[in-house]
Records
---
Amino acid sequence: MALTGIQIFKLLPKTNCKECGVPTCLAFAMNLASGKAELDACPYVSDEAREQLSEASAPPIRPVALGKGVRKTKAGGETVMYRHEKTFFSPTPIAALVDSDISASDLEGKLKAWNAFQFERVGFNLRPELVAVKDVGGDKDAFANTAKTIAETSEFNLILMSEDAGVMAAGVEACKVKKPLIYAATEGNIDDFGALAKDNDLPLAVKADSVEGLIPLTDKLTQMGIKDLVIDPGSREIKQSFEDQVVIRRAALKSGNRSLGFPTITFPCEMASNIDMETLIAAMHIAKYGGITVLSDFTGESIFPLLLERLNIFTDPQRPMTVDEGIYEINNPDENSPVLVTTNFALTYFIVSGEIEGSRVPAYLLIKDAEGLSVMTAWAAGKFSGDDVGMFVKKCGIADKVKHTEVIIPGYAAAIAGDMEEELPGWTITVGPREAAHIPKLLKSL
């Protein structure tokens, strides 16, 4: 049962050390009670208090770590039904499926192609994280060899899919260094799979024929001491799958049902006959509320929009996506190249930089911190004023990179030109176009 802020406060050290990021222990307790802080932020909480508080302060949906290395990720840890209430925390890991009887050459080709699907966006490297190995025919050697090859020759982490305990044990032994997800414990094999997960300290997926059928299975596993669970209600029809995801999230968040307080795993690959339809279903699961989603394959036209959707959904809606303030060199500029300035709103940066890059004109793009606002909004809010922008141009170091003294400002901020001229005596302030699409024409004319 969740504790109130006052109940939590009584268990804290009451030092008001401020190391947690807030001025008092009472404020920290209130944040902890409302899910706005983590218990680990307090460096002085006693072991006894930590034990009492850990369960009460744990997210209603348990965060489950998946994999090792550069593509390690997690699922779960969510605290709200709707993104606008706070934010979603754990971007849905995306997996592709391979059969255990795949040939070595085909597997090598797939891994090479899949590894190439990495996209730079807003300073993030967007890429899928998982490969699911599906047992075909019960051949434990083939299953283990496929899992071992993926673990040793790629960055991908693994989901091991079999209902045979012997096959699963061979797969775990081949790749347990990668901390694979075991899929799946069912009513028929729960004891063997539970022991395998516990002995190897691995996350375990649980599969049933319905949401209600999951509850006795997760209860039994948690009583065995296995906490890192992922759940699959077994639905493979689109409407039912959507309903199950909502029911599970609501049961965990609104009803406090700890038996369903785990991330889910979904299988668009088993719900459609082609990758296009799989992509649509996966997009639905990323939005509502799949913890992990498994496709039959990765293709560029499928994985890129899914990664982009995931990026947009799993960002704090109260904090705009931004890029770092500074000087960005585009198309290898030199001392004679034009200089443009705009705000650090990520969408603004990518549109403007894309137009500059497409023009093939070497240029410097100055990004001014405007708290993530677009040009017009930042100007209206006083975050992109002439004196501030002028001071930024003066101090950013661009004068050491170019021989000229001309800077191009966005057309929507034309009103700041006069104040910039006062802040930058001797500089020419050129008002650029309002729309980024007209930047190439301007640059070529210069």
---
Amino acid sequence: MTNIPASGIDDIIANNYAKIKTIRGMGIDPFPHRFKRTHKAADAAKCPADTRVTIAGRMMLMRVMGKATFAHLRDGTGKMQIYVKKDAVGEAAYDMFKKQMHVGDFLGVEGKLFVTHTGELTVSAEKLTVLSKSVRPLPEKFHGLTDAEARYRERYLDLISNEETRNIFIRRTQMVAAIRDVLNNDGYLEVETPVLCSQAGGAAARPFITFHNAYKYELYMRIATELPLKKLIIGGFDGAYEIGRVFRNEGVDTRHNPEFTTLEAYKAYCDYNGMAELVERIFEKCITIIGAEVMDYNGMKVNLKPPFKRLSLPDTWKEKTGEDIHNVLSGKAFHKENLRKLAAKLGVGFAADTPSAKLFDNILDEKIISELDQPTFVMDYPTAVTPLAKCKAGDESLVERFEFFAGKEEIANAYSELNDPEDQRSRLVEQLRQQTEENNGEADILDKDFIEAMEYGMPPMGGIGIGIDRLAMLMNGKPSIREVILFPLLRPSDQQ
């Protein structure tokens, strides 16, 4: 990681602990409780020369030139050059700085700003304060932390050595704040719903299971926030949303992490068209943050500027497969035999125990989604894979649902929400059949408590789920989810 042999690192650590002891012997605390700054680096950089500032940060560069030293301090806003001169800080302070301090240490500096002959705004140090003495060496200066596994496992070092990494997570935070602004201005109320649930509903996914010792029964980590949010609309809120973690006990790859962040939002008297408009408003806001309308993503140039194309899934299915989508549907379920015949004709592989829903998704992925480079709403899905959405008027085999894709990745999923409790019960019974007869472990559950809540009356509503991590991937041009999650789940290092 630091391109230094283990024995060499041990020597460096021992030497730095000795320096800490030396500093303490000089009556200086190398780990003081606090330090008062007058300026952050970015603020100081806007000040005119001769302004007195007190800054603090990690020393990232140190060039000793006899009786004077140039160094760079970096804080969370940027870096600032300092000039430490023996005559200005005193012989004892300069000697301590030159001999006991090194790159990686945190330092406080008080002095006046001046402009060097190369034109760089610099703090001429008059007083130095040791704020934290580092012991381990930082990643090697010129190559930084380049091994992907090490970057994810020791993200703090990645943040220290890679400016691009820091910018990704700053932009991610700004994007989430922008999404909140859009929703708050639209009259949605931000809420929190339970992470531990007696049932794991609201999505087609395998849950993590835990055990509550006091109540002595199993609980599930939530796989979605959909059902409790809908209950809030039943309770009288006009709009509600949550940005939070959900958990799915499934595969790990460049697109999936077992815990990830979603936005789910629900609005009364709305439908899936209103949710599509919400996506476009969010994108408008996000592209102002990244400062670009076109992003290089996984070899594609993706135009992020709304409005976005809308595709009818039934029409596109017929175009790409040569068959009407209704041939593989039987009312609110799949026509299993016809679906398998179509898959065989198209060369889409499947096994004897492949669930119909999975097979449908495979055809969709290979024949349609694989071509969706540009942002696209794919509208109107089979009822058989969407148990919580309202049917298309006059066609019970299709529902008002869209999935939103960009760069061939799913970014969002939205419905005109089903609010008929009798229909909802029958749909979830069909999901239960898929679980038992087709061994579909990702089918939705029959949540009787949710049905009961619906029976008190649920207004028409639109609902949406947006993958915040997927959105951050797209907006940063990073095709791996691990690049946009600060601490992705990794296999234990002793199992590598």
---
Amino acid sequence: MTAPAKTEERAITEEGDFLQIKSVDHVHFYVGNAKHAMYYWWKGFGFTPVAYSGLETGNRKSASYVLQAGNARFVVSAAYAPSSEIAAHHMVHGDGVKVIALEVDDVEKSWKETTSRGGKSAWTPREEKDADGIYRTSAIHTYGETLHVFVDRSDYKGVFAPTYRPIKNKVADSTGLAAVDHIVGNVQLGKMNEWVNFYHQVMGFRLLRHFDDKDISTEYSALMSKVVQNGNGRVKFPINEPAEGKRKSQIEEYLDYYLTPGAQHVALITKDIIGAVKKLRDNGIEFLRVPDTYYEVLPERIGKIAQDYKTIQELGILVDRDDEGYLLQIFTRPIQDRPTMFIEIIERHGSQSFGKGNFKALFESIELEQERRGNL
């Protein structure tokens, strides 16, 4: 695919929602140790472990745990054998997102619609059966080694999928995380428009926002980003690419350590970001911190909000406002050893944007982290 002309960019703001995706069904991480990852999401982020698949349930390939916080559902899987696909993925990328699964009414139609428009098939429509019914999926490739799996649960009444069994007595101390707000993908220089076109042409998404290197830049580095979303607005995918700068951008650092394009961060929405951040900090989750000078002009820039500005500063939360309202957001440090993936916590009050007014302060804090790692 080639970069879109202006007429093409106007066209991709038009909606062609032929897939009628309902929501993000789950996000599936391939990791080095599933039990450890499960414990991290459980005790750190307040996700409740709800299901397990492994040797004891007839799964000879991987140990897998399903965790849930509100409507956000994560799966973590680790391989039993070093020759498996999961082990190979982890060796190359470290812990990372392999699958962004999307709930649909008809996996066969979704597969046919996307592959007929140029999507590359990962697997054809298939059924998995057990005593709880039929679990239907199909899948296509997207950026890097990431897959979109189409899921139909209408005839499946089990806890997650065949071979998964319920986990009991592992209720989490909730941190108030409610759902996946958006998932950001990092791609190589010059590839952003190609993947924006992919989501429009292959999956029927429309262009929601466009940020260029003037919007997202510091003295040293910059990136460009476009946001695509499905018809009902529940699935949003910002796509980032690096821009020319004096030093290495955070996108280039990600690509250096992940080795291919991939999911940079998952944003989780909450109705109480102050309460969530307090609990997450108490649980040991580490967040990026912007300079305190950011907060000196914040009340003047943002205006009246329901939250207390002093508490916002103490916790390091960022605030931005647009014509529709305001939002609050904060970003964790990388959640694994490699400086690749992280988590965003976000609370929206009308605003459907992504914190444009916070980009410079946020990126300067990221650059400080890069400098400490020797990667700026």
---
Amino acid sequence: MFSTLKKLRSALSLMNPEEVRRTAGRPLSIVLVASTSSGYADMEDFLAPREVSHQERVRLMERIFRNGDQGAPAAADLRLYEEGLACPAEAFTFRREHPEATIDEILEAREELHLPLARSFRPFRKPVVDRIVQDISKENALFAVLSALPNVVPTVLDLPWAVGEFASDTTFITLNQVRMAFLIAAACGRKVGLTEQTTEIASIAAGAFGWRALARELAGKIPMGGGLIPKGAIAFAATYVIGRGIERLHTRGRGYSRRERRALYETAYEKGKRVAKALISKGGAVEENVPRAG
């Protein structure tokens, strides 16, 4: 435990959240195209909901332009078209009755805009956080599976700290959870960094060992056989619960109770089993190369 903590402390010192801050703080410009004033108003209310403070709405409206407005940028970061109008391939249609479909289309096509959109425009916040938690939970499940295979270097994830002495599963997964904390804070418009997020980082570091104990208990109650699936499922579930807890802290000002965390973990564990099975299936019959437990 002390050896892992020492490695974790050294690795954390190499993490620089400045890139996350810079990406999230990127100023965006959005141009709207509509045929009527009500069409423009619908899109403006979507991007800058009237329930936000007057000050925030004014700030947001400074980044939103109607087509043809004086000062509208020729090369906007995003262009939204009223439904019914011919929409160019590089732009997006605003689906008034199903705005979540518009959000999904934008996030699917413009990954580089995830953090700045979430930080500035609230309708994008939860969908972006959902993707962050899901993606990093899957990354950790994949790492847990790969780290159990002989002669496999887990740097295939292409994450900068998955090298050398930091490539143990506990240390890597914990560091990836810290990265997740940075990303969620940025998406939620909060301060990002080790100092700024002391409580979250401390909770993640402590959980590196606490979740192991709970995972062993659950693994005994939910028979899954030997092999890689339990390892991947545990990594997925622990990361998922931590991500949801951080999101709740930023959005509601409090985390989950112990009972809530346990219930969420058990649900995530089941989902993690499916994720781990899918990862193993995509990789071929790799599980056959690993000795079964017992």
